[in-house]
């Protein structure tokens, strides 16, 4: 299968640190390497913590801090990988419902292509696609390349 890269100037990669999102990132990097004018945007969406005051002895704030630290460590890994690209590239973290936030980010940044794994880290499974990839494939205003 070949993709006509001349049609794409901005690629968004939905990334959640799952094995399939790592494959999606590698795929997007390989696509971007073919044309230095393609901008690569790696998007991580964290879901807001539930409003629980205590969970197994940890305060709500401690859980949020732990999540932020984990996301920052993952983002640092991504940034190191993106530095090897000649392309303009960056990683972004937003908070909200993953499917909705990915589609909104794609719209706001005029992305031409979304690359994502077929399943992520959420426990929710659908018959063929994960719920987030299914939502994005249905709602995104551009082609969605689903990696499995």
A few lines on this structure:
The protein is an alpha/beta fold and 148 residues long. The protein has helices at residues 19-33, 60-82, 98-108, 131-139; strands at 10-14, 39-46, 54-55, 58-59, 89-95, 113-117, 144-147. Strand 1, helix 1 and strand 2 form a beta-alpha-beta unit.
Write a concise keyword list for the protein shown above.
alpha/beta, five-stranded parallel beta sheet, 4 helices, 148 residues, single chain, 7 strands, globular, two-stranded antiparallel sheet, 39% helix
Please explain how this structure is put together.
The structure is a single chain. By secondary structure, this protein is α/β, with parallel strands linked by helices. It has helices spanning 19-33, 60-82, 98-108, 131-139, and strands at residues 10-14, 39-46, 54-55, 58-59, 89-95, 113-117, 144-147. The strands form two sheets. The protein has a five-stranded parallel β-sheet with strand order 5-2-1-6-7, with helices on both faces. Helix 4 links the parallel strand 6 (113-117) and strand 7. The radius of gyration is 16 Å and the shape is globular. The two termini are 14 Å apart. The model is unreliable at 123-129 (pLDDT under 50).
């Amino acid at each position: 299968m070949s993709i006509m890269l001349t049609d794409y100037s901005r690629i968004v990669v939905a990334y959640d640190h799952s094995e399939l999102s790592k494959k999606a990132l590698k795929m997007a990097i390989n696509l971007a390497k073919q044309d230095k004018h393609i901008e690569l945007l790696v998007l991580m969406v964290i879901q807001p913590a539930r409003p629980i005051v205590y969970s197994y002895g940890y305060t709500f704030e401690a859980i949020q801090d732990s999540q932020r630290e984990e996301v920052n460590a993952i983002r640092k890994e991504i940034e190191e990988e993106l530095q090897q690209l000649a392309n303009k590239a960056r990683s972004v973290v937003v908070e909200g419902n993953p499917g909705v936030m990915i589609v909104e980010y794609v719209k706001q940044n005029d992305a031409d292509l979304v690359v994502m794994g077929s399943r992520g880290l959420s426990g929710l499974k659908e018959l063929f696609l994960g719920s987030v990839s299914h939502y994005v494939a249905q709602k995104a205003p551009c082609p969605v390349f689903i990696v499995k």
